[in-house]
Amino acid sequence: MIDTQTALGRCQDLLDIAKRFGADRADAMARASSSESVGVRLGALEDVERSESEEVALRVFVGQRTASIVTSDFSPESFAALAERAVEMARLAPEDPYVGFAPEDQLFTGDMPDLELGDTAEPTPAHLREAALAIEDAGRAVAGVSNSNGGNAVFSRSVAALATSHGFARGYAGSAHSRSAAMIAGEGGSMQTDYAHRTARYAEDLPDAAEIGREAGERTVARLNPGSLPSGKMPLVFDPRIGNGLIGHLLGAMNGGAIARKSSFLLGRENDALFDSALRLEEDPLRPRGQRSRPFDGEGVTCTPRALVENGRIFGWMTNVASARQLDLALTGHASRGGGGAPGVGASNVHLMAGTVDPEALMADIADGLYVSGVFGQGVNLVTGDYSRGAHGFRIRNGQLAEPVAEITIAGNLIDMFAAMIPANDLEFHHAVNVPSLRIDGMTVAGE
């Protein structure tokens, strides 16, 4: 796989060629990745995969007209054809008064911070196979597990580089180790399945493989023989791996592009007290070994740690160049780049600060409620904030987890849910968005 300097060289070559073909301005984003994965099922090797991909995306400007194009052919002839085609496309595109580059005084400069994104140790295929087997063996050893959907171990590396025609040229590389398992319990119509999954930049930050397998097995067996519960309003407690989705909806609604399109349920509420005053949501793009750590955003703007929610209020809107210009706001360092096209908006490492009580105390006074351990369906309207998802989990009786429940629906409105949100103290940093257990009273449950 190419290194950062090679990626930057490709970007600069494309920019030079685009200028020769008539682009007023241009930027290029190069990405490369490699991964090796081993999967096992029922103690036997099921698949071994190795993949590598490299691409570079060119965006050109002719006045206020722009076009983007992506290639994985890095020959001089391909670059010339790509740049020529991109400029021709831009000349035919409609004018957009909001597109452009970030001001030079807001671009990242200076030394690259050591974010510890790349593990120097690289596991061999044999090591990945041993890890996958250990994960699956531990899951299958849990009493009540009847079958397996497999255990997997993956190692990957990635490189990202951005160069612009107004002088920005930086890149960084990273690694990721992933381990997962999915187990089956029960037979026929009573069959249940669940999983466990962990990802870390460094192998030493992963839990023991057997721990991941046991978690998958125990979660699966706990779901056997689910019932239902009466319909009505009641307190809900969200498992951390489900609760982070609620924060994901908040981040989507804080997207400056959504605000500019008037398609966010937070529109006009930026000065409202939406949360309890003690709740604090933080973003730290410079977190060492963070899954979304980055020194600069997809437009080269310096990334800065900040409170996204403090004293009950959001900090404002997350912007890229286009949305900041449209809304007449400052840049916030939230531009994101995918494989091509115009930059989007996205947050980095986000976490909801832990509360003061443990999960048991959080639900101790709930006479009858629901612990949500899984949701499904797409019933979230980010324009109105209406929330309705299929769910499964466990009934809460007199402050204790009781029998499993399934085939129910939970519903509310995100504005009301945010206002009622109470965090426990069990915050752990496993994902790009991390939350502790969350209690929300007064949600509607549709069961029996």
UniProtKB/TrEMBL annotation:
Residues 26-90 form the Metalloprotease TldD/E N-terminal domain. Residues 121-224 form the Metalloprotease TldD/E central domain. InterPro entries: Metalloprtase-TldD/E_C, Metalloprtase-TldD/E_cen_dom, Metalloprtase-TldD/E_N, PmbA, TldD/PmbA_N, TldD/PmbA_sf. This is TldD/PmbA family protein. GO terms for cellular component: cytosol. GO terms for biological process: proteolysis. Residues 231-447 form the Metalloprotease TldD/E C-terminal domain. One of its GO terms (molecular function) is metallopeptidase activity. Belongs to the peptidase U62 family.
